[in-house]
Design goal:
- By secondary structure, this protein is of the alpha+beta class.
- It has a single domain, classed as Aminopeptidase (3-Layer(aba) Sandwich).
- It has 5 helices and 8 strands; from the N terminus they run ββααβββαβαββα.
- It has an 8-stranded mixed sheet with strand order 1-2-3-4-5-6-8-7, sandwiched between helices.
- The longest helix has 17 residues.
- It starts with 12 loop residues before the first strand and ends with a helix.
Amino acid sequence: MNTPACWPAPVTLQGTHVRLEPLRADHAPALAEAVREGDLSGTWYTVVPTPDGMAAEIERRLGLQAAGSMLPFAVLDANAVPVGMTTYMNIDARFRRVEIGSTWLAKRVQRTALNTEAKWLLLRHAFEALDCIAVEFRTHRFNLQSRRAIERLGAQLDGILRHHQRTADGSLRDTCVYSITTPEWPTVHMHLRARLDAPTP
């Protein structure tokens, strides 16, 4: 199968609870406000941009998009208010693999249907439109909230890359690598739709 030169191409993904649209420089002010919720940039085991650094982070992600290694999205809530970022990253156009990562969300939308639907939209697009053979998720070994969230999606732990990277403070990071493969997608799809369609208690 031939792969377009720009793969994956920018796209807007619309759900009931969330809208994922191509990241733009003018998202910066609203995203700076969103990151202030819960002082997200102070979390030691993950990298979240500071309010003052938001414009530079958007520029960095757009630069990686231009280089073909990332497709960044702004995450908007049902009222079209930007509440976070997510990306396709570590893009492998030849073998059609992507990682969903570099994600952060305002405190008020964490562990809500918005987050579940955002992941479902990204996974559905990856498997059904981009014909990916696998989608990865990676997180710090000590980011237990992220690990549980990834596992709730139905992703399987492939392994732990020990001393994989150095963090900004110089400490060594062990990275947990999870994935969902093409044969697993139909079951994961049903699982996520069941969660999204369940009545709110």
